[in-house]
Amino acid sequence: MPKDVEVHDIRHDWTRDEIAALYDLPFGELVFRAQTLHRRYFAPNQVQLSTLLSIKTGGCPEDCAYCPQSAHYDTGVDAAKLMDVEAVLAEARAAKVQGAQRFCMGAAWREPKDRDLDAVCAMVTGVKALGLETCATLGMLTGAQAQRLKAAGLDYYNHNLDTAPDFYGAIISTRQYQDRLDTLAHVRSAGMKVCCGGIVGMGESRDHRAGLIAALATLPEHPDSVPINMLVKVAGTPLANADALDELEFVRTIAVARICMPQSVVRLSAGREGMSEALQALCFLAGANSIFCGARLLTTPNPARDIDRAMMDRLGLSPMTS
Ligand code: SAM
Ligand code: DTB
Ligand code: SF4
After folding, report:
1. Each residue's pLDDT tens digit, 97-133
2. Is 135 in the active site?
3. How many CB atoms lie within 10 A of CB 3?
4. Is 260 among the residues known to form the active site?
5. Taking 80 as the threshold, does the pLDDT of residue 5 lie above it?
6. Helix 277-285 to helix 305-315 angle, to the nearest 10 degrees?
7. Phi-psi region for residue 288, left (φ > 0), alpha (ψ -120 to 50) or beta?
8. pTM above the 0.85 mark?
9. 16, 102, 121, 135: the active-site residue
10. CB 65 within 8 Å of CB 242
11. Which of 70, 135, 157, 240 is at 20 to 30 A from 107, Cα to Cα?
12. Active site residue: 121, 195, 196, 260, which one?
């Protein structure tokens, strides 16, 4: 691949207006551009497979309007203590048997206490020893906590920007956008890979969606992994009755993420349970190349493994080889 093509493709100076203009392209033109870049940087028919486990569920002090695990809303999710290390390792072994490549441990915390991090570090080391890539999402981290996780063997840290800076206040009041940027900087400085994306379908405008992609694509380094979540509407949360996002607008968001961050793995993340196979096929065509596999996300359903195997077979997709 010619060097000038690479230099031109990987930009950190995207403006929101330029990204809004991508959204405005004719659908076929947008998907063609995304697919062209996808093929330049990735094997086009390979999909990275991650499995999620909620290692500490519910009772979270934050007020994220989308989240079934916030203690502010009555969603029927019971708060549970941090799981035992052995129980987590048993789940990781099962995920590996089912073909997962990365095991992502999620905790409903604002931030981990140092005492909790002892157990999480033991989980990370144990999962890594199984030959799986490791990922965790535990809320805000200090620099020292990020370094401890890295030393324990953590490959990826997931921390989402969630939405555009100017829509953020409508969704979360208990922490600031800058807090998230600070955590992402700590994760990078510690030498871990960054998994960072957002949620669409929360009542934001197209311009807000462009603002989210602009915030991600102008980080000092593009996130290695970019999860694009379709809001999973959970009864009891403030967003339970949010208007459904137009399906093709979701595909456009995937395509725009692919164009603005060509070397990042873009994950068709939460929300697949409500999507047809045809819609998911369009997302792969638009540059998505990762999914969560396994019948549960953190607290909500995800397609069962055999359903996804059948989909991947029908579409000629295979697990990503590095
Ligand atoms: N508590 C930690 C935090 O917020 O960073 C980690 C777990 S939190 C559940 C991880 C991410 O899940 C959130 O940032 C959000 O993007 C996503 N998420 C949570 N609830 C969701 C929902 N109902 N639909 C789509 N994505 C959701
Ligand atoms: C991400 O961006 N999506 C995942 C993962 N990172 C942690 C979480 C989705 C959660 C969906 C709601 C639930 O199952 O509780
Ligand atoms: Fe807590 Fe994370 Fe849910 Fe926000 S998204 S309420 S921080 S678990």
Report:
1. 999 999 999 999 999 999 999 999 999 999 999 999 9
2. yes
3. 7
4. no
5. no
6. 60
7. beta
8. yes
9. 135
10. no
11. 240
12. 195
